[in-house]
Amino acid sequence: MSTLGGLVWSIADQLRGVYRPHQYGGIILPFTILRRLDCLLEPTRDEVRALAKEFEDGTLDVQVKRKTGLTFYNTSQYDFAKLLLDPAGLRANLIDYISHFSGNIDVFERFGFEAEINKLDEKNRLYLIVSQFAKVDLHPDTVPNAEMGDLYEHLIYKFAEASNEEAGEHYTPRDAIRLMVDLLFAEENEALLEPGTIRTIYDPTAGTGGMLSVAEERLLERNPRARLRLYGQEINDLSYAICKSDMIGKGQDVGNIRLGDTLADDKFFDKTFDFCMSNPPYGVDWKASEAAVKEERTKAGPDGRFGPGLPPISDGQMLFLTHLAHKMRPAHEGGGRAGIVLNGSPSFTGAAESGPSEIRRWLLENDLVDAIIALPTDMFFNTGIATYIWLLDNAKQSERRGKVQLIDATSMWTKMRKGMGSKRKEIDAAARERIVKLYDAFTETEHSKILKNSDFGYWTITVERPLRLNFSACRAADLDGKALAKAFGKDTDPSPYLAVLAGMSKHTYLSQDKFIEAVREEFVTAGLKLTPAQYRHLAVALGEPDEAAEAVKDAKGNPEPNVPKRDTENVPFTYGGNTLGDAGRDATLQAYFDAEVAPYVPGAWIDPKKTKVSYEIPFTRIFYTHTPPRSLEEIDRDLEAQISKIMGLLREVEA
Q1: Closest CA relative to residue 28, chosen from 136, 178, 145
Q2: How far apart are CA 276 and CA 197, in angstroms?
Q3: Which end of the chain is more exposed for a tag (fewer CB within 10 A), N or C?
């Protein structure tokens, strides 16, 4: 592949002076696609031309597929060989050639190819480029589909590198895809080996089609008589064009590769699939899709693909997570599986009942999370951060129901001889086999943990402490307008009341009731009236924090909370071994409060109205291994050794 890629890319040398290096890809990629299609059409070219004379456009598609098995065609009289026979008419003939492809071949317009042809002709480079590509044999017999996919990705990487773009925005490393595919197929391994097996797979962020291509390759390696129908949607025009071209070469239905924003406009809204895969952008905002996503969520309700919740606008990867969960074939139809690459944030970000937490809650309470695999760092071209493969399954095997397997594969990698961008590590065949075996075994080991869905849930309780204030009428002169309006009414002149308060003693009360009683007596004597609620507002306005005072009470005699001292505690569902359900919840929360809070915060209580449910997956904490610190004696020995070494060096210098 690297030799072929170098050969094709070397043709770009003819573009120097006319194009800048970062523009080469816009020429090389469409010409590579055109040459591939030209080679694919060669055996049936004469037959298709004959059919084109006999049938109209409306029936030609059907006739070509029936006679040749191809889902696309070209009715032009030209091919690469004939184009070179007329150098003077090359520009017009080449445009004629690409304009006579069947309607489902819309890839060249995505590159603005006709404009580039005109520019190449104007700069006297067109014949040179066409003649060079005519020498490259891209027929499937010479370059199999798998190698062609590698070639496309090699060219994209070189193009992105020259453009100072992130190559990883366009495709995913093959080693990561192979691992995900093997994990996806693991649960259906026997069924996939049956003769004539047909399955569907879908990628909502198809890119150049790498995930779909690898999935097909891996299935055919297991079972050459199997059939995997590939579906994908891609938002980037150039990536879409390459993906579609690659699917054409594989004999796939090119109508199953569609252009558009998956979040805003699901082109497969009426379909579900046996397998789903995705490597969505993470850390990328979804502002462009926001209006459509929110409108769909409102219309579809809780059962829609965004019903569980919405993540922060700054990062849309969890939207793809819920999207995939809804694209799996329903359990009553046999079920589906999905794999998605995410960074660490979907596991734990978001407070209780926030969008991310509610998404995790929905996934876990519906038993959709099958496994999460932590990958090595430096695995992807555009980032060195920690990444994870989430496996979803809506029809789990009996032993996996109600459970999630966590696999730590961060140490299972080999170093690349030559890094590519941020990618310096790869998961080779041995490491991939080890990871898949850990998954298949479904047992507890150093690198594999099995947890119940409920192990990830917890309640966030609000712990209140009583508000304790002392009271003094002498503080009335410092009250602001807002406090005065609340105590005496916004349309009431506070002057008479303030005058009475100013004449009261400077005594400080530690009891709200006694203070109100004293003030009421003075107001009644002065002919002034307040409601019970106004007396309480006035008392709080004239109060100051004092832990020695009695608790301030509300109208029902309950203690008022001290808001600045309000605190929250996270209580695991499994705390104390209590069962779930309302009764189990109440028992668990009370047991936790009695043991962990009450002994240390006298007078505190739980506000049940503020209790919230949350889920998080603390992957790192679950696999954390404590390393005891070095002893002081060991540290002292090392220091003494270093000091002795330094002193020896100093003596050598002085000598």
Answers
A1: 136
A2: 17
A3: C
3-state secondary structure 575-616: HHHCCCHHHHHHHHHHHHHHHHCCCCCCCCEECHHHCEEEEC
Sign of CA dihedral 98, 100, 105, 109: positive
The tokens for 197 are 């097996």
163-177, 340-354, 393-407, 582-596: least confidently modelled range:
163-177
Q: What is the DSSP string of 67-82?
A: HH--S--B--S--HHH
CB atoms within 10 A of CB 81: 10
Question: CB-based contacts of 399: which residues, under 8 Å, 6+ apart?
Answer: 442
Strands 543-545 and 469-471: antiparallel
Q: How many CA atoms lie within 13 A of 232 on its CB side?
A: 33
> What is the structure's pLDDT at 516?
95
Are 315 and 359 in contact by the 8 Å Cβ rule? The answer is no
Q: Round the CA-based radius of gyration of the chain to a whole number and report it.
A: 35
Work out the end-to-end distance of the chain between its first and last CA atoms, rounded to an integer number of angstroms.
63
Provide the Cα torsion 200, 204, 206, 207; round to 10°. Answer: 180
Q: 347: part of which helix (H) or strand (E)?
A: none
**pLDDT for 89-124, tens place per residue?**
999 999 999 999 998 888 899 889 999 999 999 999
653 falls in which pLDDT band (50, 70, 90)?
confident
What tokens were used for 520? 């009421």
Q: Which two tokens stand for residue 293?
A: 């996503």
Task: Give me the amino acid identity at 350.
Answer: G
Note the residue count of the chain. 655
Strand partners for 275: 201, 337
- pLDDT value at 467 more than 60: yes
Closest alpha carbon to 180 in 278, 87, 62 = 278
In this structure, the strands spanning 198-203 and 227-234 are parallel
Kindly give, in sequence order, each residue whose CB lies less than 8 Å from that of residue 321, ignoring residues fewer than 6 positions away.
340, 342, 346, 359, 363, 390
Q: 122-129 contacts: CB < 8 A, separation 24 or more?
A: 123/18, 125/14, 125/15, 125/18, 126/90, 126/91, 126/94, 127/84, 127/87, 127/90, 128/14, 129/11, 129/14, 129/15, 129/27, 129/31
Query: pTM (2 decimals)?
Result: 0.85
Q: Please state the three-class secondary structure of 223-255 as a single string.
A: CCCCEEEEEEEECCHHHHHHHHHHHHHCCCCHH
Q: Which residues of 483-508 are buried (b: 16+ CB within 10 A; e: fewer)?
A: bbebbbeeeeebeebbebbeeeeeee
CA–CA distance, 292 with 297 (Å, rounded to integer): 9
Q: In 344-489, which ranges are E strands?
A: 369-374, 387-393, 403-408, 414-420, 423-426, 448-452, 457-464, 469-471
CB atoms < 10 A from the CB of 63, how many?
Answer: 16
